[in-house]
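User: What would this chain look like folded?
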Amino acid sequence: MTRRTLLAGMGLGAFRLPAAQDTPAMKITRIDTIYWKSRDEAPFWPHWVWVRLETDSGHFGIGETYPRNPVEAAMIHTAAAPRLLGRDPRDIDRLWADFYHSFDYQITGGTEMRVLSAIDLALWDLLGRSLGVPVYRLIGGKSNPQVRLYNTCFPHKYDFNKEPEKIMRELLDGYGIRAIKIWPFDRAAARNRRQYISPADIEEALVPIRKLRDAFGADIEILLEFHSNWNLTSAIRIAKAVEPYKPMWLEDMLLPGNFHQYRQLAEATPLPLTIGERMAGRMQFVQLLEARAARYVMFDVCWCGGLSEARKIAAMAEAWQLPIAPHTAGGPLLFYASLHLATAATNLWIQESCQRFYERDWPAMLANPLVPADGAISAPEAPGFGMEIKPEVWKHPAAVRRTSTGKA
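Assistant: Here's the prediction, encoded as structure tokens.
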């Protein structure tokens, strides 16, 4: 019995992989970028750049990165456009590899990886739109119909250092979210120029942590962010001080790249470490995994190399029996794209969200803003990443726009 006969007998003889069989032939003919010089120039707090790829077939896809918007937009048009225009957007892996090897000659990282991330996201969005399917269907399907969320306390109604329990109560009552991320040690880092932490500094930082644990007990998870502000000695001192409050994780305590030092930190505390938000490319994540320091692997699809690279990083983490926790404290497409990856992943722990975004910013710019319920959220079923930007946003008077065309 041949494989074809077997498939036919199983009723699968007519099965075709949409991405391979049904995508129309097309070429990239236009590249647009749009950003705002200041977050205060629009009612939706913009701090990202969008890139829009359009093809001769009339299809388009949107990508995103941040936060050096003028530099990223300029590089898209000067360095990326000549390599993109006229290319077939379906060849996502080939385009990624070509860009990466080109950028590597200029020491890849920083702006180069952020630009590559934005382009890669636009290509996946375009592919999904051209096929009429959500991206999660193209990368493995629906492993997680509901994606569990935690809340990052961006400026909104209350100061988490003073009234974290009010934030947590709104999250619980309004959205069923039971996990909250705060960064109460950052003020001490600023005062002490990131060199040391005193007992008084620790006592000050423990106040909001105590408030949360006293008010909600074990009903919530507390996540602690450190923005890579500390040296190893200070980090160990902080970890020992917060151990009684049982935070879910300690995030980015040291600068990325110090993997041996991260291993020493992991050996000094039973608390789990989360690492990776500011890392780019799978090669860095190989070193992170080999250090055996992280219990959760975090990445940002707008920084690490786009959805293509994030999928590979997630697969590497799974091979090490580690869960992923996508970082989404950026623009809206970052959240939507991460949600599709989280939906398809089989080693997901939790995804970041921001109350401010779905209550204030997204309704001002998106035709279909997502809103959590019961502590979770579902990926949209619309084609591509499913994010629909209001037409007037593209025409916003303070927006900085640029277009590259050619090579039909």
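The chain has 16 helices and twelve strands. If you want, I can go into more detail on any region.
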